[in-house]
Structure formats: structure tokens, C-alpha cells
Amino acid sequence: MSLRLEDFSTYARNTWCPGCGNFGIERAAKLAFAELVNEGKIRRENIVMVTGIGCHGKIADYINVNSFYSLHGRAIAPAVGIKLANPMLEVLAFVGDGDALGEGLEHTVFAAKRNVDMTVIVHDNRVYALTTGQFTPTSPKGFRGGSTPRGAPEEPLNPIELMLVSGATFVARAYSVNLNHTKELVKQAILHRGFAFIDVLQPCYTFFDTYKYYGPRVYDLQKEGHDYADWDAAMARAREWNYGGEEVERIPIGIFFKADRPTYEEIVLAGRNLRDASVPKISGILLRHT
Amino acid sequence: MSLRLEDFSTYARNTWCPGCGNFGIERAAKLAFAELVNEGKIRRENIVMVTGIGCHGKIADYINVNSFYSLHGRAIAPAVGIKLANPMLEVLAFVGDGDALGEGLEHTVFAAKRNVDMTVIVHDNRVYALTTGQFTPTSPKGFRGGSTPRGAPEEPLNPIELMLVSGATFVARAYSVNLNHTKELVKQAILHRGFAFIDVLQPCYTFFDTYKYYGPRVYDLQKEGHDYADWDAAMARAREWNYGGEEVERIPIGIFFKADRPTYEEIVLAGRNLRDASVPKISGILLRHT
Amino acid sequence: MVQEYSVLIGGQAGDGIRLAGGSVARLFNRLGYWVFVYNDYQSLIRGGHNFTVVRASGKRVQAHRNKVDIIVAFNQETLEKHGWRLKDGSIVIFDSDSVKAEGLGLPLTGIASKRNLPLIVRNTAALGALASTLGLEFHLVEEVVRSSVRRNVEENIAVAKEGYDMSGGYRGFLRVQALNNPPRPILSGNEAIGLGAVKAGLKLYVAYPMTPSTPLLHYLAGNADELGIAVVQPENEIAVIGIAEGAAYAGVRTMVGTSGGGFCLMVEHLSLAGQAEIPIVIMLGERPGPAIGLPTYHAQGELFFPIFAGHGEFPRIVVSPGDAEEAFYLSAEAQNLAWRFQVPVILVADYSLLESSFSSVLDEGRVLIEKPKMWSGGGEYKRYLLTWDGVSPLAFPGTAGVTVKVNSYEHDEYGVTTEDPVLTVRNAEKRLAKSRAIEDELRKKETVKTYGNMQAETVLVTWGSTKGAVVEVAEEHGFGVLQPLYLNPFPVWEMEKHFPGKKNIVCVEANSTGQLARWIMFHGFRVDRTILKYDGRALTVDELEEKIKEVSA
Amino acid sequence: MVQEYSVLIGGQAGDGIRLAGGSVARLFNRLGYWVFVYNDYQSLIRGGHNFTVVRASGKRVQAHRNKVDIIVAFNQETLEKHGWRLKDGSIVIFDSDSVKAEGLGLPLTGIASKRNLPLIVRNTAALGALASTLGLEFHLVEEVVRSSVRRNVEENIAVAKEGYDMSGGYRGFLRVQALNNPPRPILSGNEAIGLGAVKAGLKLYVAYPMTPSTPLLHYLAGNADELGIAVVQPENEIAVIGIAEGAAYAGVRTMVGTSGGGFCLMVEHLSLAGQAEIPIVIMLGERPGPAIGLPTYHAQGELFFPIFAGHGEFPRIVVSPGDAEEAFYLSAEAQNLAWRFQVPVILVADYSLLESSFSSVLDEGRVLIEKPKMWSGGGEYKRYLLTWDGVSPLAFPGTAGVTVKVNSYEHDEYGVTTEDPVLTVRNAEKRLAKSRAIEDELRKKETVKTYGNMQAETVLVTWGSTKGAVVEVAEEHGFGVLQPLYLNPFPVWEMEKHFPGKKNIVCVEANSTGQLARWIMFHGFRVDRTILKYDGRALTVDELEEKIKEVSA
Ligand SMILES: Cc1ncc(C[n+]2csc(CCOP(=O)(O)OP(=O)(O)O)c2C)c(N)n1
Ligand SMILES: Cc1ncc(C[n+]2csc(CCOP(=O)(O)OP(=O)(O)O)c2C)c(N)n1
Ligand code: SF4
Ligand code: SF4
Ligand SMILES: [Mg+2]
Ligand SMILES: [Mg+2]
Is D181 a domain residue? Predict the structure, then answer.
């Protein structure tokens, strides 16, 4: 029996604001899960979502699959642990921009560096939304929020660039409004063997309404023949837009970079299964201690 | 009276191993301080060293200037605070590779992003030395240490690339053996208005003896006419060597990139002096609360 | 009898319930009433259910009651959830465009939309109607609107007037009496803490957003220019405290604010402050845990944690205000103590203290910046000079001829690392000496407050904002109340004074294990009963009255 | 009289002092002696002063004494620092190439250099000489070298023989008697903790290096293949515990190891384990704090911190072994308890327990993996099913038909977030129920150990490795000893059993505030005196004897 979007819903009351970009991500994820299961590529019970804390994190309540609703900034380390414990699982981290690029930046960089076979989806609304609108690492300079009434004092961080230098083997950007494109990226990211990163431009209707800004600017890299095997080309595309403001005319979405290298869990586990219940005899070791 | 290297010494007994690359960094720093003071460019009492924890951190005990010997991985945040509190101070963070690129990576990235006017000097021995030799973020894959007897499972992180995408406005690499070159870089970094980063290749004689590896490979970017105003060229040079092993023949040292942009403390303080002892009347504010 | 009114305003997140509550409070304030405003909201941005209770009284009140005189309902859910709060003679004011009810219905949505104004102006219309039912003159409403609304001021006044004029038969229904008092500042705990710190010399506030401390960040950022301070928001809480400690080392008074989860991340730096002797004030806002728990609700779950957080042994002060006035003075005192003893001071404040508003009479002249022990300039400077009270003279980097070395390792007097056993013992004893000096100092201060009849057999002991309900009930029923303002060092000398002969010591607090009760018992005193509430909501006066019957019977 | 020998080996970091100590211990072990090895080293890699004391005895010993029978000196400083430890009839074995002394001088440096071997082989030459002075046959030395040296084995044996043959008149000077016992495994606390955990099902060890827990990381990594486990070292301690909690959620038994500073960084995740009910064992290695303190020295500074760490209220178990055998069994028990109750268990271990080595008799058959409460497969799965003991059945992701949702927020039984007051109370009560169930379980276990004469008026109370010296002194002087193995929940029921009638309760511990003493007093028991040592060095038997005279007089 083929699964549909609704099969991944829960009874939880959705509390995102009307117009929130998170709805697009939720739909894209559910559709991606349903299609991959229907296509026989993954098993439903093997999907695990790990989420941070913020508006984005609520997605754990809304999708009926295994989930680990973690601390703020701390979704990615548990995700790595889950993958090590059971490499059969399809591990996805749904994280916030404040969450995974601020509070817990180091875990994002290191999961990429290690090429853990997992997917990170950043709900990049470029604002701390759940705490009512402060600037985040990806907010444009001058962003006015509760903590910066005279404008954020910092230039934004470009997560695509960051991931390119960190060793991620699948680096992409999506726009939550483009449902189908986002869903396809999520599917490809899940199927990618290695660390996949998608920065989803997700307008926060309430604290940073970027619909009008993104709408006319986004374009699909894949439609323009970008060669995602070429790291330099990927970096050049990443630098077309630095998460700033009006001055830029085009914002690329799609896959910037994709490569193949051994995954962390392959190397660390070297074929070992940590769920194996057998216990070693230690008498030989004890003898060596005499 | 002109200051000499010895004027910056303390009575502390030096406990670095004979042959340690840290001696070169210590000398370079003392010479840089002495020369800058002698040249009238900085005042001795304005120098503040903040250090992490590791063999590198001991430099706080060995140089007779103001110092904040912080926690492991936590030198850079206090350094930012010191600069905000008193922008007249010349703030330098002497950090380890494990310290500032592992434990506290996020602070390094964010200080760069903000362009805080400070200098970060990484004693990059590519090993956790003080804890007796484990692999760090910059160790080559396959590095054998106490925690990885079969070799480190991860590709190294390239701190130069990382700083280039993080927004650092002065990005350089030094080799602790090249005393004069290192000293000159330290001087330029101090004089640079903005966030200056120097990754110093510092052989750890005991746990990762890289003298023979670096010796024939390092070359000076500035002698080869590298244009440090060109970000793309800087990135290309950074990628000549990815902190790996034998396969590479040349390792660039010198200044990769240099640029000018407003500093964090200029923007945040907007001319305010936090050491100003005056206290505001709040009666006006209280009235607004009625 | 004391004049008293309670108004509940309810709706969805985004309806501006909290703002409306503020306006109602201002209205009563201008009539000379003491007000207390309790805010109940969910961890979401739109939708859900939010409500605010404004209690206004002729005497000081610092807790809300279950029953109310007026409900202002912006949606049906408000009445479903709060209908039970109505008494005989209570009125419901509601948006007749979206709510079915009996009472004073006004087409609030229509009033807003016909003027093309955002829905949030429903608040102002309702305020007008409310004022009319209270029999107030319109100029009072106008004053309140002018003092609290920032955008579309004239339109808001027009809307308020429309609401005012539409109250029909309800005009003067609750004819409120003006009292002969000047209006008092209405401050939340967050605001009071911010202002108190500034009056004691705060120049840099560092924080990462986290409920219930976020309003302090916003308040100080919003008033930074007027207050002459800088406010920065770094990448995470580890950076927050690192930056603050760096600034303190360089001579600037700082504060950081957070809640339990963020405080966890600061604990290693807390220990650093202990070793390196860095003055730092940490505002720890409490909400129900563990972990994320209930982010926007009320609890007093962290008494032991701040007292024992951090590895190793070092002196620290933990202080716990119970209302906005105490928050103001204790926040200032926290700064002075941190700098006097060069120790971390943790200001523990529960959700309801931080996010409720209290009529507060503040005397800014009472707050002084105490000058810390500074280096006199003679001889060689030693950052960690051994002294009888464990406190070494301070100097800051940038001082000619001086080298200021602070150190996270054990160190000698100059701040150079040592592993010597004798110096190790000496440093531990320096820290012990400081602990004693702190206790000596606290013995001279007001470390507990008492209320009610301290001769009674029953004494209620409480901390934080819970004292609002406790004091009111105790005064009514003739009990005594003891409220420690300092939790560490714990003022045992005060317990010794107040506890003997009491037959019935009852601890009232908002947690599930009775932390204050345990803390008191740990110090060798008897606690007979506990009244614990841990559903995430602050105790109301009525609830406590119910429970007190059980334990005082 | 019991046969007993103490040997001190001293030199610089890099001289291999610790290895030499291990070899000497093995020598005595093969003679049937109980051994205890105390390691004293500085936070540096080369130079400085390191020393190791090996105490070998016919009875079990777990502390060192001040005086020694033999000093092996690789440098002059060793004699300068430790000369006072010599007794009548003690011998000094020294490197005559670098040390001036009386006794058995051997050109150790020359022996190494003439063979072009690294200087570290001086150890083996000294071992040979030592064996000769003890009157042992060379084959014993050869056996020890073969069992402990990895590189240049034959050369080392030749060097040992050279040392052995050069002892001249000292041959047989201390003629040691072989005892009729089989050799026993000599284990450090770190090693024992690692092995105990593995026997209880550990499959993943996660750590960031930090003294004194680093040897556990190295030991498990070095034996990972044989033990069938994975060992990973992530970017920092926050990642360490995050990874471990993720793996536990997915069904794998994990442990993390750290010291105070790293533990600080884990505290938020500790609270997460409390809310989400994730089984996790944290090995907290103690060293002198606060902050970096003395990284390579001894302290028991963290009793309260692990008990009260983390925001909010949640059950946890804190366990404290005192020697390697206890470390082995309690580490295993920690795993089983963590999984049985789905709570964090903190294993507190002081420096001297972790870094000293103890003759240990271990029965691996005694350790069983207790199967946790697993989901039976019937009906819909609820991760947080409410049960009488607060423990819900487990299932792991990857199970067909099951959705496993864990949550850091308050949640309903399925793991979906809630802000409901009723569910909030229910969850708090679930946690309280677990606390009670844990206490009930512990009442059935050995939670304290007693030694010596428990009828005596004086009972010494201690924890961790300090018990080594305490038990020895108590047995000698006829006192009783009580050692809590569990610090939380605190076994008050045992205190009630053992304390009444005692005239003199003396707490002995390695900190400056008497944390165990305070903890006991907090529970309503009297403590008459404390003996506190906080210079970073473990208590010796002689020191305690001195101090005990003062307090038992
Ligand atoms: C350690 C910690 N610090 C702060 C918070 C408070 N907090 C909750 S959500 C949030 C903002 C989340 O922003 P982001 O990650 O961008 O997610 P969004 O709400 O925008 O989806 C913060 C700061 C927390 N829960 N834990
Ligand atoms: C929070 C914390 N974790 C771990 C340690 C232990 N530690 C001390 S030094 C060190 C290694 C330092 O490595 P690096 O930063 O590369 O400096 P190096 O010794 O190589 O100069 C570690 C892990 C610590 N002090 N604090
Ligand atoms: S605040 Fe922003 S991100 Fe959060 S639910 Fe509303 S629109 Fe979405
Ligand atoms: S261990 Fe390495 S880094 Fe440390 S002092 Fe020795 S040589 Fe230098
Ligand atoms: Mg966001
Ligand atoms: Mg290093």
C-alpha cells in the first residue's frame, strides 16, 4: 500500500504562524519520506529525525516517524551517535540557523568534516524566531530585532561556503516555497552516501518576511548547468549571494557540490555492529595485567 | 630605553620539551612586542595575552605582559570582552589547534565574522600535546595517537580556508622555525585593524615531529608575488596544502589575505567608553513606566 | 474594605494580550492603585492561548486571584477556559465579531478593519470600553494610550474613544473609586534587574536569548543609549560568559542573563571565575525543567544547582529577589558584592518574578557604586596578593608599570601557574577566607525578610515571587512569613533567630522536591510541611488559601 | 609480621617513571604480593619531577606510606625531594652518570647509550639491579620485561641482565620472601572502569581527552578490537555526551569519561537525559579545581556538583568506588542501573583511584547484563507510558510498526510536546516515582561498605580512594570505617544502622570544605570531626596516622 503525505501526520496541533515557511519544509519532508518508502528505497521505521530547539524543532511533533527532539544547538551530535549505533537508520537533523550555525556551530562543521552519512536541513529563516526575533548568524547586517534595535552589528555567515570548506559531500540550498524542488533535494540528500547539507531559505512571516525578497531572485543551479563536481565552481556560486540585502539580484538554489568519500561510520565501525549483544571474555586481558 | 627580548621574560620555569616549536613562537612574540614598543607603535601595558589550555597556553606564564590564562577552548571569547571593555588594549589570543579549532571552534569563527580587532595565534602542532598526543582537527587522517591506535578516522580541517569564509580580514600562516618571518607576521597582525589570524605550524617534538616534513616544503607567499587583496587567489593558495601528508610538495606561509572593514567594537560601542564611571539617572525611564 | 479589581484579558498569541494588560494596569495605576500583572503565554508565536491577569488594589498586591471582575475576551477560547473565574456582578467585554457571550459585546474586529488598522488595535477599543464600564473619564484613557502606544497614536485614541462610547448600559457599571496616590512605576522583574544593575555601574550586558530572560535583553538593548551601556548577543552562552569575564578582567561591570539550559553552559566559566577571581553577575531565570521543559512557564526548580554548580570549591553568592523592588536593589547589591569580593554572584529569578509586573517604589538615590578594593599603586603589583579576607587589590590591564595576570590554574600571588602543594593549600584557604568574609558581610545586611505575625505558631517560608501569594494569605490569616533573600551563604543566623518555638514551619515553593525546605533542613532546622506547586503556573492567592487550610488545620 | 616493601622511582617526565613503577609492581606481584602503585606527575611532557611509589605487602594495601625501602633515582632532584623517605637499611639505586649519592650506583645512561638505545631503557637496567638487591632470580625479571615491554624486547632483557649483574655487594641486600599466592591482575581505576563497563554491555565509549580520564580513553581505544567496542573522540565534551545520548536512544550502551571541566559542559545534556529518559553513564574523574586547578593531581572536590548538576528536577544515581575492584563492579552496575531506570548515572572517581594501580581479584562471571524493561510488542508503542515505577518500556528506532519519539520538552506518553498543567504534574510525578523506585532498588544492594571494628566508638567515614589509607589505619587502631559506595540517593538507611551510639564520627576526605561530612550532616547525622587534605596529593598512611591522633585523642 502506497503511503501518502497524511500518513506521516500526527495528532499534534500545529502552532506555526499562518504563512510560515516551515509548512513548506514539513510538506517536503513528508513527501520525500513517503516517496522514498513507496519507491522501496528506505524503510519507514528506519527514518529518524533529530531536531534542535526553535520554531523549526516543532517539526518533530508534526511528523510521525522516530524523533529525538534535542536541545537548542544540539541536534547534530545525537544524530551522529544514532548513526554510529545503527548505520541502517536514515538520520536527518532538522535544525535552525541560530541553532546549528550559532549555538552549536562546531557540531555542524565536524559532522561535515567526518562525512557522517546523514542529512542536515537548516530551516534558515535568518532569525531567532521562537524567542521573538533576534538576529542570527545568517541575518543581514543591520537587521533590527529585539536585541539590536539599531541594527545587527555583524556581517552574516554564508553556510554554503562554510560547508564547502568543512568537507561536506553534498551541499545544497532550497527555498521552502518551491515545494517540489525542496522535496527532490531532500530525497537526494537522504540517498546521498555521506554528509548532506541543505540550507532551506525559510521565510519567517512574523519576524523576517523575506518572501518578496527571495521570490524574484532565486534561480535553479541545475537549470543553468552548474557542475556540482567542481568545488571551485561551487564556491563561486556560493559567493554570488552572501546573505546580505538588496544589492544582489540572483540567489542560487539547488546542489552546489556533491562528491564521494568514505563515511565516518564505515571507518570507525570497520564492520562492527554495536547492537551485537555478545560480551567478550576478559580473562586474557586480565592475564596481561599480572 | 629600548626593550629587549629578555625584558619580556618571567621567573617561571619553562617546561616545554627541548626542541618544542613553542619556543619559536614565544621568541617571535617577545621580539614583536619589544620592537613595536620600541617603535612607539604600542604601549607595553596595553598588551594583553589571552591563552587557551594546552602546551601552548603556558606562554602566558612565560611572557611578562598582562594575561588571561583561560579555559581549554575558551580564550577567544574573553579576548573579545577585553577588547570591548577597552579598545585601547592590544589583545592577542594564543591558542591551540585542539583548543580553538575543536573545543571552542565557534568562538574563532565568530570573532572572525565580527572582525574584532584582535590577533589570534594558533600554535598548530596538529596534536593534543598536553594530554599526551591525540589527533586534533588539523591532524592528518590516519594519525596514530593514544585514542586512535589504528589511525585518525577524519580528514583534517584547513583553518586558512575556514578563516577565509568566516570573514577574517588578515589570514596568515607561519612556521615557528622561521623566527624572523613569524615575528614580522605577528607585528603586522597586531598592527592590522581588524581580526588577524595566524596559523603557526609548530612542530611538537614529542608527539608529532613535523620538522622534517615542513622544512623542505614551506615557501613564502610574499616572495612569490601572491596578491593578498585577492580572496580567490587566497583560497587557491590555501588549498595548495590541506594539512594532509606526503603527497604535497609545497606549503605556503605568509599572508594569504588582508582586507579592511569596520571592526566590531567600533560598531557596537559607537564611541561609548565602558570604563566611564558615570551612572545615569533613571527617573525619566521610571516615569515612562507609570 | 480595600478596593480591589481583577481583569483578565485573553486571546491568541499575536493579539497583543500582554500589551493590553499593560494598558489596563496603567489605567488603575493612574487611579492610585497598586497593580500586579501576571502573564501566561505559550511557546509559540501565533495562535494558542495567552492571557494576562491585572489585579489592582488599594493595598500592595503581588499575586493574582482565581476570580476576576472583568474578562476581556478576544476569542471564544478565553471564555471557555476562564468562564469559571466570573463572580456575581462580573462583566465580560468581548469582540462580538468573533465571540458569542453575554455582556458587553463590541464589534472590535470591525472597528479595526473599517479603519484599515492592524487587528491589534482591538486592544485599545477594549480599553476604552473597559474604562467606560469603570466609570472613568476618557482623558485617562487617552493618557494611557499616549504613554504606552508607539505607532498610530491618534488612530488608537480614536479607536479607544469609539470603544468608550459604545459601552451603553455598562457605562459606570463597576464605578471605580480613585485613590489618593500618585502613580507608581510598574516594572517587571526583568526591567527592575536591568535598572538596578545599571545604577550599580553595569556597562556591558551580554546575553543569548532565552525565556524568561529575553525581555531583559530587549529592555537593556532598547534603552542602551539612555543608560549608557553596551548590549551584545554572541554565538552562544559559553561565549556570553566568556566575553563578560574578559570585560570584567579589563575593569568593566558586566552582567549576563539566561535560563537553566544556558546556565548549564556557563558552569565551566563559573568555576573559572572562582579560580581566577573574576567578578561576574549571572541572572538565572527559572522556568520548568528539566531540559527544555515548559519554556514559557513558571517554576522554582534551581535552588541547589546554582549553589553547587561548577567543579572544585570556591565562594559564590546566590541571591533571590521576590518582587520588582527587591529585584532592583538586589541586582545592584549583586554588582557591588561581586566586585567587592571578586566572586560570581548568581541572581536567581523565577518566571513569574521576571515576566510579571509590579507597582514599585524605587529610590535610585539609595543605590551606590561601592568602590572595590583597588591597588594603591605602591610597590610591585600582585594580582593575587594574600590578604586576611582573601580579597586582593585589583588593577586593570592598561595601567602603566603593572602586569595583571589572571589564571585558571592554581597560581602564585603574581598569577603564574604553580603545582606546589603549599601554595595549593594557601589558595584553597584564600578561597575559604573569602567565604568567611562574605558571610561576615552578609550578617550586616538584610538577608531575610519577614512579614505578618512572626509571633504566630505557623510561619510560612518561601522564596522568589511565590512570596506574593504567601504574604497576602499570611497577613489575612495571622501567620508569619520568612523569605530568605540570600540562598548562599544561607542566613542560618536569621533562622536561629526566627524559628525557635514555632510549631509549624511550612515551606511554599514552585517545584516538586521542596528544595528550599530541604535546604533549610540541611542546615539543621525542622520543616513541618511543604506546599509545592509544579504545574508550571504561579500560585494564586485562592489556591494557597485552599492548601493552607489543609496544613494549618 | 606482614612482609612489606616500598619502592620509590623518581625522575623527569619522559624518563618512563610510570612504566618502571609498573614493572616493579609486576615483580612483586609474581612473588605473590599485593601491590599498590601511586603515580605523581606534573602537567608537562618533559622535565619537571615525576615519581611513583610501589608498595608491596603480604596483605592487601591500597595506599602508600611516606617511608620507603628503596629509592630508584634517575636524577639528583629525586634524592633532594625524597631523601627524607629513607629509613635505616633503605637502599638508593641511582644512575651514577647523573646522580651523586651513596648506595648502588650504576652507569645507567652509559648502559643505554653504548647500545644506542633510547634513554628510557635505564628503567630496565634499574629493574635488573633492583631484582638483584631483592635477591631474586633473573628469570623473574625476564618474565616481567617480556610482559611489559613492547619494543626492543631482547635488548631490554640484555640491559636488565647488565643491571642485574652490576649490583655487586647489594645482591640480596633486602632478600625478599616469595609468598605462596598466584599473581593478581594489577589494574588502575581507569582500566577497571573500562572493563567493568564492557562486561555490562558497553559498546561505545566517547570521550575528549582530559586528565585523569585520558588513560581510560587510551585503554579502551587500545583494546577496542579485543573488547568489541567502538571508541570515538569528538570535537568537545558537548558533542561527547550528545553522541552518546544519540547512540543510547538507538539502543547501544555507552559511557563517556571526563573531568570536572568537561563535566561542566555536559550538564545541559544531563538534564536532557533526565527529561528524555536516556540511559547514560558519565565517568567524572576528579582533580583539584576550581577551573584548570592542578590538572594532574588528586582531589575529591565534586560530591555536591554531580548530585545537583543540571536544571530542573530529575532522578540520577551517583556512585563512588574506592579501589579498582569496586570500580570494576560499580562501573558494571552503573550500566545496568542506567538502563533499568533510564536515568543518568554518574560514576565519580578521584585522581588517585583512576591513576593508581591496585592488585585486584575480579570475577567476570559475577557481572551480568540485566535486560532492561523492553516493549513487549503488544498494542501501540508509547515511549513514555505511565507506570507505577516511572519506568516505561523501551523500544528502539528501526523496529517495524513502532515510532520512538524522545523529547526534551514536557511531553505526553507518545513523546509529543505538551504545555498542559495536568500532564506537567504527571511527568514530574513520573520522575518522583522513578526516584523512589531507585531508592527501593538500592536498599537491596550493597550501598556502603564497612571495615575494621564497627563496634568501636570512633568510626571513620570516607569515600573514593581515600579509603585505602583510612581502612589501613582503622584496622591498625581498632576503629570502624564506613564508606558509602552510593552518594545519591544517599543510603541514609545504612547510616541509621551504623551511626547510633558512636561517640566520634570522623570524616576523611580530599577537599577543603568536607563535602561528604556536610552531606552526612545534611541528612541529619552528626559528624564530629573532619580530616581534610587539599594539597593535591593523596593521603598517605603515615599522614593519616598523625592526624588521627589529634582527633581521636
Ligand atoms: C541553551 C539554550 N539557549 C537558548 C535557548 C532559547 N531558545 C529557544 S529557541 C531559540 C531560537 C531559535 O532560533 P533558531 O535556531 O534560528 O530557530 P527558529 O526559531 O528560528 O526556527 C532560542 C535562542 C535554549 N532553549 N537553549
Ligand atoms: C573542557 C576541557 N576539556 C579537556 C581538557 C583537557 N585538555 C587540556 S590540554 C588539552 C589538549 C590541548 O591541545 P591543544 O589545544 O592542541 O594544545 P597543545 O597542548 O597541543 O598546545 C586538553 C584536551 C580541559 N582542560 N578542559
Ligand atoms: S515566528 Fe516565524 S518561523 Fe516561527 S512559526 Fe511564526 S512565521 Fe514561522
Ligand atoms: S609535548 Fe609537544 S607541544 Fe608540548 S612541550 Fe613537548 S614538544 Fe612542545
Ligand atoms: Mg531561525
Ligand atoms: Mg595542539
Answer: no
